Amino acid sequence: MKLSQRIEAIEGSKTARFIPLMAELRQKGRQVISLAIGEPEFDTPDPVIEATKRALDRQATRYSEIPGLPVLREALAERFEGAGAQNIVVFNGSKQALHTIFQAICDPGDEVILPIPCWVSFTEQVKMAGGRPVLVPTRDHQLDVDAMAAAITGRTRVILINSPNNPTGALYPRKDLERIARLAVRHDLILVADEAYDFFVYDGAVCTSLYDLAEIRDRVIVTRSFSKHYAMTGFRLGYAVAPIPVANAMIRLHSHTTGNVCTFAQYGALAALSMDETLLVQRRAELERKRDLAVAQIADVFPCVRPQGAFYLFPNVSGHLKPGETSGDFAARILEQTGVAVVPGEDFGLDGYVRICFAAPETQLLEAFKRIREVL
Ligand code: GLU
Fold first, then answer.
1. Residue 215 carries which DSSP code?
2. Which of 160, 194, 295, 334 is 20 to 30 A from residue 171's alpha carbon, by CA?
3. Are 308 and 205 in contact (CB under 8 A)?
């Protein structure tokens, strides 16, 4: 059957590309370790589980307001100076928030500047909105602001910033974000900030949000997520903070796509927001320890820039590629030989690298690195 050009132009999410091969290997009795998908091993916190169960017990199983429960939107708005509930829209994960943003702000042919490597879904979401992803290389995983400025044309509509970055774990310094902000003002651009990992930054670093730059708030859209910080990946809960006209446009689209996000899950999210930071601080420390362990484990195998946030290593594997082999071929070979799944850098727009998620259980991490070292 003929499918739409729009859908023919996009690929399925690459973070899931090895799921069939992993299943096949498991069926053959192999012990597969996935360091591919970005999912923390932590349990969902008890207060979240309890609040969700209570919501189910009292039949919070009906439609709720399309942009999210008012009480949840208000609680989220309190975290953003100067924002009100009307600036917040709750989505089925920040993935849906980002998709909706591009639908709301891109016209056909509009250019969206994406520093690469970048998360696999950005390019496809931009294309689905009729936009054109403009991929701008980074330097040692940090923004090359001059190259980004040079990439701006009369068709540029958006710059997307993802800090801490998936897949590299890079955290962008405030001075670079301020330069991006000035570019946005000069060229009348919208800034989209994917901040799904904003609490998970290490070595005492602080994550600067584009929202912190008060003078550009009228052109900034921030997305954040409950998935990573609260280990709520299956709840599918994220949100966007946007200027009111954009928030209203997104709500209009939301009203035709899913309507509201699962009502009882939103009560779980509300409970997550009422927790104090103790658990998150513990989890951040645990991830920092695993980051150090993972960096130490691979140091003698692959060169790797030390990640400052998120929970990924993005080492350079080019020294281990066979002639003609891409990072995709390499990742498939590693999976077949060692049973360890990682995501190839080419899926993030940078061949010669792989992404390794270090949020897996420590025993699995150690075993995975041991197997990889043996084979290489
Ligand atoms: N964001 C995570 C990752 O990059 C989850 C999977 C996805 O949504 O792509 O692995």
1. G
2. 334
3. yes
Task: Name residues of the chain where pLDDT drops below 50.
Answer: none
CATH number of the 5-43+278-375 domain: 3.90.1150.10
Question: Whose C-alpha lies nearest to ligand 1, atom 2?
Answer: 38
Residues whose CB is less than 8 angstroms from the CB of residue 296 and which lie 6 or more positions away in sequence, other chains included = none
Expressed in angstroms and rounded, the spacing between residue 37 Cα and the centre of ligand 1 is 6
The answer to whether the CB of 233 is under 6 A from ligand 1 is: no
Give the C-alpha distances (Å, rounded to integers) separating 367 from 24, 163, 231, 297. Answer: 20, 30, 23, 10
> Cα dist. 328→15, 86, 304, 345, 371 in Å?
12, 43, 18, 8, 19
- Nearest ligand 1 atom to alpha carbon 36: 10
Domains 5-43+278-375 and 47-274 agree in fold: no
Copy the structure tokens of residue 61. Answer: 């199983």
Closest CA to 221 of 188, 192, 259: 192
This prediction's pTM: 0.96
CA of 120 to the centre of ligand 1 (A): 8
Write down the domain spans for the chain. Answer: 5-43+278-375, 47-274
pLDDT of residue 16: 87
Alpha helices in the chain, H assignment, sequence order: 5-8, 19-27, 46-57, 70-77, 93-105, 120-128, 145-150, 174-187, 244-257, 263-274, 278-298, 327-338, 362-375
**What are the DSSP E strand ranges found in 117-235?**
132-137, 156-162, 190-194, 220-225
pLDDT, residue 37, reads 92
| pLDDT score recorded for residue 263 | 98
Q: Name beta bridge partners: 32.
A: none
Most ligand 1 atoms within 8 A of CB, residue of 95, 225, 356, 357 to mutate: 95
Query: What's the CA gap between 224 and 217, in Å, rounded?
Result: 16
Residue 96 Cβ < 6 Å to ligand 1: no
- Omega before 164 within 30 of 0, i.e. cis: yes
Which of the listed CATH numbers 3.40.250.10, 1.10.1370.30, 1.10.3720.10, 3.40.640.10 matches domain 47-274? 3.40.640.10
